[in-house]
Amino acid sequence: MTTTDAMNSEETLARWQAEEAAVRARLQTVPGVASPDQVAGRSGLQILEAILAGELPLPPMVATLDCVPVRIEPGRAVFQGRPGSRYYNPMGTVHGGWFATMLDTAMGCAVHSTLPPGKTYTTLELKFNIIRALTEAVPRVRAEGRLVHGGRRMAVAEGQLYGPDGKLYALASTTCLILDQAS
User: Fold this and answer.
1) How far apart are CA 91 and CA 42, in angstroms?
2) What is the distance between the alpha carbons of residues 104 and 88, in angstroms, rounded to a whole number?
3) Phi and psi for 41 in degrees, rounded to 5?
4) Radius of gyration, CA atoms only, the chain
């Protein structure tokens, strides 16, 4: 890595940390699940925006992963997480399950962001490839999910997990089943 790359990486990390601090300041402090009344009549994008604005609780899984949503747009979701040692496997690197769950979260929210009121989704298939090991030496990573195809019954999304230096840590794809929301 050149000096310029190191400075860009440090600048990117500082920007990411500032974005995360701003998001965390808005989020509800206690994770939870929104009630059916709280989400009734809202599109997937409206639900996700309400979570990001702190109007609805942050799901408990996000707290478990030590990550936050930093950007939600139609067909795109970006989550930022800290790959800490509490996620290590016996080899002293971040467990593949953490990679998979970060990517599943971002890709699922990319799909969710395109759903109309009354619709929800579930992951039907998840495939991911770890490109390189990850340790807590990388202070933050971003999982970015992007909708590839959204249909009435199925949606397909892809994702990437990358660090502030631009290094790619994992790639993924998912197929989601679109469902009627339970009342």
Assistant:
1) 44
2) 19
3) 80, 0
4) 16
CA angle 163, 171, 73 (to 5 degrees): 75
Model pTM score: 0.94
Residue 151: which of 179, 125, 117 has the closest Cα?
179
Tell me the DSSP string of 129-182. Answer: EE-S---TTS--EEEEEEEEEE-SSEEEEEEEEE-TT--EEEEEEEEEEEEEPP
The tens digit of pLDDT for each residue in 141-165 reads 999 999 999 999 999 999 999 999 9
**What does the CA dihedral 76, 38, 180, 26 come to, rounded to 10 degrees?**
20
